[in-house]
Structures are given as C-alpha cells and as structure tokens.
Amino acid sequence: MVWYPYQWCTEVGGTGCVNIGPWDCDVGLPLTIEQCCNAIKVTVPLPDHKGNYLDCHPDPPIGSVSNPIDYSRVRIHVDTNNIVVHAPKNE
Q1: For residue range 18-63, what is the model confidence (pLDDT) as tens digits?
Q2: 28: left (phi over 0), alpha (psi -120 to 50) or beta
C-alpha cells in the first residue's frame, strides 16, 4: 500500500482540499515502482494550488535490500512535544 499523508489542495485557501490514496500496487502480480507511480499519478491529474503535480519518491523499508540497516546511523523517535518515545536504535 502507498499512502500520501497530506490533503491535495487544488485551490488557494484550502477550499479545494481532498484526501488522496491509499493505492494498492500489489494486486495479483505486484507492479514495479515505475508502474505503481504511473498508476498513482493517473488518479491525481490536476496540479496543486502551487502548480505542482504529484510525483513519486521510492522509500523502501529500513532493513530491506534497497535500504539496509546502517549501524552508523541512530534513529531517535520523538512525539509532538519532542519527548523520546522509544529507545534509540540503529536503522
């Protein structure tokens, strides 16, 4: 599944904002990243209120072949109050 965490606003002032996604690119035979991206972009053909079109940025999960764990990198998760919520860990 692919999620877009923000509303897509096509009018200044937020009057034309809608939720977009999620998209399932694993239907039967999984789509490639390019095929999935193209399928997503077809569903959001209009630019946002700043003239930007939706585009894709692959973000493979940490620990996958495309994004292996980097033991020199430490991730510290904090909440909205900037308080650490999990023990720091290498990712």
Answers
A1: 999 999 988 888 888 899 999 999 999 999 999 999 999 888 888 8
A2: left
**CA nearest neighbour of 9 among 54, 66, 63, 71:** 54
For residue 68, what are its two tokens? 């292996």
Hey, what amino acid is at 11? Answer: E
**DSSP symbol at 84:** B
Amino acid at residue number 44: V
Cis geometry, peptide bond prior to residue 22 (ω within 30 degrees of 0): yes
d(CA 91, CA 71): 7
